[in-house]
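Page header: ASSEMBLY MODEL / two components / 1103 residues total.
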Amino acid sequence: MTATVDAPTAELGKARLRKEDAKLITGQTNWTDNIKLTGMLHLAFLRSPYAHAKITRVDVSGALGQPGVIAAFSGADFAAEQGSLPCAWPVTPDIVIPPHPPMAVDEVRYVGEAVAVVVARDRYAAADALASIDVDYEPLPPVLDIRTALDPGSPKVHEAGNKSYEWVFANGDVDAAFSDAPVVLERTYRQQRLIPCAMEPRAVVAQWVGDEVTLWSATQIPHVLRFALSAFFGIPEQNVRVIAPDVGGGFGSKLQVTAEEVLAVLIGRKVGKPVKWTETRTEGNMTVHHGRDQWQRIKIAAEADGRIRGLSVDLLADMGAYLMLVTPGVPLLGAFMFPAIYKMDAYSFKCTGVFSTKMPTDAYRGAGRPEATFAIERIMDELAAELGIEPLELRERNWIKHEEFPYTTICGLTYDSGNYEAATAKARELFDYDGLRAEQRLRNERGDKVRLGIGISTFTEMCGLAPSRVLGSLSYGAGGWEHASIRMLPTGKVEVVTGSSAHGQGHETAWSQIVADQLGVPFEDIRVLHGDTQVSPKGMDTYGSRSLAVGGLALVSACDKVVAKAKIIAAAMLEASADDLEFSAGRFSVRGDPEASKTIQEVALATFAAHALPEGVEPSLDSDATYDPDNFSFPHGTHLCATEVDTETGFVHIRSYVAVDDVGVVVNPLIVEGQVHGGIAQGIAQALYEEGVYDEAGNLVTTTLADYLVPAAADLPSYRTERTSTPASNRLGVKGVGEAGTIASTPAVVNAIVDALRPLGVQDVTMPCTPERVWRAIQAAHGQPAHGQPAHGQPAHGQPAQGTEQSGGMA
Amino acid sequence: MYPSRFRYEAPHTVAEAIRLLAAGGDNAKVLAGGQSLVPLMKLRFAAPELVVDINNLPGLSYHRADPDGTLRIGALCRHADLERSALLAGTQPTMAAAAPLIADPIVRNRGTLVGSLCHADPQGDWASVVLSLGGSVVAEGPDGRRSIPMTDFVTGPFQNLLAPDEIAVEAVIPAAQGERRGGYLKLERRVGDFATVGVAVSLETAGEVVRRAGIALTGVGASTIAASAAAAALTGHSLTAESIAAAASAAAEAARPRTDHRGSAEYKRHMVATFVERILTRCSAEPAERAA
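Prediction written out in full:
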């Protein structure tokens, strides 16, 4: 095999502008909402105003007389066919997975759950007619705080109770690690509820022709969705086509089989016309699955010199009202990441999944790993303060040294590569770490009103989801492979089909660069096809920073097959033995006779003509490959953040931010840069701005972008981003970059805030660290300098740390 | 986010606009910048049957000073015009401070100062600024024009004194009695957010003596609050640490904040005092430092 990543054309590493962008920025994008079909009708959903209620009556007849209305349905009308939305990740054998009808029939369990639908000639008529539907509710008590939801007297979300599952993991002698440890610290951290807010709202178009249905959806997962529609809703798989046209971001929120997708298919069949639904932003905030929402109790035992002996983690994870596609598994993706880059003797982890009367949670950028990284990086700073060890020094004493790779962690993961020393050294220098520390000391001595804080996050993550056997061992319902096809066209151009369906990541550009190197054809000659199950019939789609580390490797395998076959044909054309040919830069040449050569394009044309193919060789230069990774990939890096904290107002200003990421070999630095920038922004958003808030009745308060605070450019600092490169052990040496920034940045920012205020006695600020919360933390800590914190007696789950706010409230 | 059905008119003369509004009565709304009305309609919090778009009315996009220094702002003068105004930068420190803090650049390109005053949102910034400057609104109706002092113009949250057939055509800021000093500070949870707390301070000084003071508060009551006692604490004296502290504490006392998702009453009150103190401390500095 001669296809190598070292082909002299070297597209790999070129900062190419994205192929996708010209159409995106000139308004030629084919969003689902742009689709117009003849006779198409529009849907509007009536949604529950109650967090929890019995539905005693639904009367849609009033809507039927309204102008433009064609039909109206309630949940009862779908009872026979709507089944239950799937949960693909039953994490324990005794997990409680309650039925989840796409449209509520007897009971609603969160505000926004669909109870009726109007089908009308236009979206305005559909929206107007909702007011003419009568629903009688019998309110039931909501369940809003998972810390008390498991108490015996708590109201129940489902008949079976509020506990969905308990999942445990342990390795090493945890009791021994903690029992006589010189230092034990315990903290409780809050991962607030987040709302994904992809720029493009969800949208669906469903069209039946005979017994075949085509579903266009703003989804990350056309292949999974096709499988689900068939497996769980009884439509034969060969009759289902799912198309994800241009999709405007997902961040995990479109990794879902949604009620609206299923209902659009069912309604389209009932009315015999194509139907469309596009969510409003308010509907989106209420009913796109939410992210995070955990209480994390973390305990660390260490020697006096800072060496970690053991770590113990006890999570409460809010499932929301139902388990959606991967709801219960999200916290477990973090289970293996709490030990992060550190060596230790023992580790235990427990996660309890709890139901509430809120929108279900599910994957959101990083999915489990940001939570874990936050908790470990926060408590490493606390441990450093407790022991009086410089926090970077404490980390270095514990992290895996670069010469120790591959290293099997306490969780049993084998980190194939990494160099934490190199990334940290680079970050330190760019940040002027020592200079800022000196300034900080000076300002603390002066007692400045505006304090300087330095936040550290030396993170790693596991991505490239995922080896199928590992997913199997975690009870996940599918594999983790990815598929690719290569089609050499007669003119020497190339069609690349990928099962990894992009929704903003830039696959069309990056995949073209990889294939250009592998086949030695010009970048411009390559077209990447994806996102339509009829064009790309096999795939596991895009999430978990898997596209490059899994889909990219599938691409290389498919290229290998094309080259291998082309070589046989080229040998015949050159009247040489295939063994005597070498392939480089798109040209097959006879060793020792460089004049005797054929380009891959010449071979493609000859294959098309098929006039003189060797005996038994089929006239095609197409290939398929499915790649199942044998390990995750482990990007890492060091992020450093400097904050100015105004102690009078609580206002936090990020003064500088340095990110040094090691994502292995880089295909396109511009795309990597974009991912890191967006990722950091999303992590800062969790640290400072965003929180999905429900009030005491279970109403979502943050229903608009005026209430749910997605930061914009003006709120964010300029970043300094650099890279180190430690190649991963796969053939391309690539890791993944989609989530790294988000995973790294949240603890860097919060650590910086706490670092600024530690001289004033502050040990924690609950996220998002709004000015008021920062101000209150200062007030609460007043006059209590933060040395010699007690090792025990920290608040348990039942009491928020630091006298900070209840979930959702500001008071 | 789909508005209810409505009729749309875009007249070319004020007289025609007034006729349309008179016919529409309580169910008609004027659309100028549309940055508040349109979102409210999309959320169905507002459902007017008639929208009268005044953007075709000629000659209302000005802001200019009379020879005596009186400032006039037409109904179609955008926030962005004020943000970039050389006139304000030299003569109206409170307005110049507030203009770039209005919402975000997109809103500032369309939204208008007069529209903001009419909208009477307790979290609106301009109402405090104009109130602190002792300004007024000129309304035109079937019987001609009348001037309404800002102190009377806002009658409650999202309510103003305009009759259904009147259009606010101009805001007026009277000429200063001396040198203007002042500022506007706003606590927003994110750039472009409504004010959690906003404080407008406008002083007119002769030498170091304050001849007129206006302090008004955004977001800490059911409507914009004139902190008159705080202003009175400054009038007739020069700015000192004591008078500044007295004004800050009187302003905090005048605030009527409510605990809500933007913040607690306690914190908002604290921020009123902090902002008053910060603006006045800057006003008391030497001119070179003030400009910094």
